[in-house]
User: Fold this.
Amino acid sequence: MQFSHELIVPEEGFPFKLFLFEGSEGNYRRDKHWHRSVEIFAVCKGSLRFFIDERPWDLAADEFMIVNSNEIHSVDSPLPNETIVLQIPLKMFEDYFTGEQFIWFTHEPGKRDARFMELVKALYRAYTEKSCGYDMKMKSLFYNIMYYLVKEYRLTEVDQDFMRKNKKLTRLSAITAYMKDNYTEELSLEEVAWVFGYSPAYLSRMFRKYAGISFKDYVQSIRLGYALKELENSAYNITEIALRNGFSGSKALARAFQKKYGMLPSQYRLLKSQKK
Assistant:
C-alpha cells in the first residue's frame, strides 16, 4: 500500500483530522506533549517507538497506538516509515464519558486489531483517491472506527489517579496554549503563573508532576519546534531565526539545537537542502 508524503488536512465538513506522520523520513523525535484530542497512530510500513508516561511501546507494520486525551507521550522515529495519524476531538465521545469530560482507551493489543487497521487504511485511501461520493464513504468509515473504539477499546473502570491527572492536564492545556501563543516573548515562570492565578512554585510543581517536564524545558521545546520549521521552510538566516523564535541569539539556539537534535542548525539546514 503506497502513500504520498504530503501532509493532509481534510477540508471542512469532516469531524476529524487525517494526515501522514511528519517523521516519515526517519531521524525524528517528537518530544513529550499532550492534547485534548484522542489520537491514533497506525503504522503501515516501518516502525515507531512510543513512550507513554515513560513506558515504551514498539509498533511494527500493521500495528497502531491509541493515545488518550491528555496522555503524555513522545514518539521516536529513527527509520523511515509510513504512518497514518487520525485525530478525533474529545467532544465526539461525549455520550460515552465515564466522568467529567473523561474517556479512556486501552493500549493493549486486542482481537479486533486487524479490522481496526483495515478501517484506518481505508479511510486514508478514500481521501487520497477522492472517487465519487468519497466524503460519504469517509464519514461512514470514520463512524465505524468510532464504533470500534467505544465497543472494543474503551475502559469503563478507570483508576481515580488517571482522572485526577487528566483534570490537571486539562488546566495545563490552557496554560500551554498561552505559551504557544507567546513563545516569541520572554516567557518567565513568574509571568505565566501570574496570568493564571498560581504561585510560581505551584505552577513549577504542576509541570514536573503532571507533564513530566520542567517549565523551562517546555518553553524551549516550543521554540525549537518552530525554529526547526523555519530552518526547513524559510530563507531567514540562523540569527534571524533565533531572534524570531524567542532565543537571545544564534549561540543560544545552537546550544539548544545541538543538545536536542545532535547537530547544529546550519548542519540541519544543509542536510535538508541536500534531500530536496
In short: The mean pLDDT is 88.
